[in-house]
Amino acid sequence: xxxxxxxxxxxxxxxxxxxxxxxxxxxxxxxxxxxxxxxxxxxxxxxxxxxxxxxxxxxxxxxxxxxxxxxxxxxxxxxxxxxxxxxxxxxxxxxxxxxxxxxxxxxxxxxxxxxxxxxxxxxxxxxxxxxxxxxxxxxxxxxxxxxxxxxxxxxxxxxxxxxxxxxxxxxxxxxxxxxxxxxxxxxxxxxxxxxxxxxxxxxxxxxxxxxxxxxxxxxxxxxxxxxxxxxxxxxxxxxxxxxxxxxxxxxxxxxxxxxxxxxxxxxxxxxxxxxxxxxxxxxxxxxxxxxxxxxxx
Length: 297
Hints:
The protein is α+β, with helices and mostly antiparallel strands. The protein contains 6 helices and 16 strands. Strands 4, 10, 11, 12, 13, 14, 15 and 16 form an 8-stranded mixed sheet that branches.
């Protein structure tokens, strides 16, 4: 019996043409809404560390199926040591933008992104809507981010599990979705000690519901906790939000797959690629209080 061909996923990328899954070797699978997405994890396989900075893990370490980073401790340390988030690139000469991103009721964060990236970072994070606060040097952007955290208790991180759970509770109109961002933008601009080198931006809320394909009539009911050897998943693609695929799976409703869980596994074509299938662990969403703030397809 021939050994089935395997693929390795490098993650989901948001491109000017839309979202796509990227495979080792550079091949891409566009993620068009309505298409069937189906794959299985090879039998008797383990999830391997994906390495750091484009280099393979020298230990070929085994990593947890629930890890979204898919890196061993050493590779994770090396990867973070060269990131903007670690504050090791203070001499970066590029301009940076400070933004406010909203993910659902009571769930807004502050962050920064290189100006040259445009809104790509907001698509990657799954921000339902956002607005810019200002543009300036990296350290000025960092100081503004810290100012909002300290003065207004605005977090710089929102866990993905909370983002997913609240998507079923989104207001139905863009005007309603923009309210919290507009109010927070106004409060932020009134703060003293605003860095002089950061050029303020007016509040212009960008709504990304249509770009993601989110539908209030088909809310997601659960998400995939991890992939497992021999497990399979298949369904119709309803939406793509950040790294998440919203899949309509026969008999299970809409299930969310964080594509970061796919990396590090040997993936194969499922036995029944045209049928809905779900043989991986999932968990149902629970209500979230909105009071955080004052080749396979």
